[in-house]
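Work Package 3 (structural annotation) set out to generate three-dimensional models for the target panel prioritized at the project kickoff. During this period the team completed the workflow that converts sequence records into discrete structure tokens, so that structures can be stored uniformly alongside our sequence database. As a representative example, we reproduce one entry of 162 residues exactly as it appears in the project archive.
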Amino acid sequence: MSSRLITNWSDYDGAVQEILDLTTATLEIFDEDLAPLKLERPERVAVLRGLLAAREDYQRHQRLTIVVQKPEFVRQYSPQLMNLLTVYAPALTITQSPPHLDPLKDSLLIADGRHTLIRFHRDQARARLIVDDVHECAPHIQRFAEIVAAGGEPLSSSTLGL
């Protein structure tokens, strides 16, 4: 169990990769537009594809749930992620959050309910990385569940380029 404060974009980027590398079953993401997560990098797409493909290979409960406030970046600049949505739906969902959640300024990346990266404000790199601590992750898991429960508009691969 560990927790550390992140204060710069380089360390934040490393923490994103660390969370992705630790993911074995579920990954939950809430972000304004996914841009700071750089999910289109080949090594990150490979992790996401591996997670989703394991679901088919082993009939496990792998799941990738993404909620974004602004879907334009995903639609325009994330073709590999949109391809994964085509291939692996419903194990992968991408949802645009409802307008009443627009004031939220933070970002969440939660792996397996035990590893979490919380960026406190979308315009700053300041974040907290929690590794292997279910108790410390619990409030963030609850918050993500509340964000998902608020509803929203699902993205589909057919919205690509719109």
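The helical segments are 9-22, 42-58, 72-77, 79-88, 134-149.
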